[in-house]
Amino acid sequence: MKRIVFKKDNIDFQIIENSLKLGKIIIYPTDTVYGVGASIDSIDGINKIYTAKERNFKSPLIALLSKRENIEKIAIIEETKKDIIEKLANEYWPGALTIILKKKECVPAIMVSDGDTVGVRIPNLKLAREIIESVGGILPTTSANISGEKTPRSFEELSEEFKERADILIDAGESPLGVESTIIDLTKDVPVILREGAIKKEAIEKLIGKI
Length: 211
Known about the structure:
Layout: E1 4-7, H1 13-21, E2 26-29, E3 34-37, H2 43-53, E4 62-65, H3 71-74, E5 75-76, H4 82-92, E6 97-103, E7 117-121, H5 126-134, E8 138-143, H6 160-163, E9 168-171, E10 182-185, E11 192-195, H7 201-208
Parallel strand pairs: 1-9, 2-9, 4-7, 6-10
Antiparallel strand pairs: 2-3, 3-8, 4-8, 5-6, 6-7, 10-11
């Protein structure tokens, strides 16, 4: 298949859906940085992300969602964590917060490094959510760069080498934030910040207490 480049105002969502079902991968903008994604139902597509990034399979992908209802399709909402999840989601979704939860059986092992957890996030960019919705509302994603290279904040910052490895590219200029998401792990007794990005630890602690 020939590589396809869409401008943000001229996207064929049907082509995206059909291509990702066939194991293709897409580079697309999110609110934080540019990401590369594949269908959650395609092991070939997920494998292609790791190959394109030259990435170790011990580094899991996260699942970007088009809407909150999709969380429970792939993650387990523990009764003891419902209140915290609700507070964080109400405050920061859509937005730059990735929440780690226990995964459901339907999540491919290759996507989460054979682990039992999955990271979920709803991007605060309408175009990203539309792309995600077009492929079923869940899109395994990571940053669109070869491992070790600079994370691209705009289409122009994507390396030519990495662009050549994708099947579909969405040219939408700059990502609004240009900073990676903050990652919080809610699978422990006490929540843990795994990566401090666009949202600061202090802001989260004001909302849910000391972490």
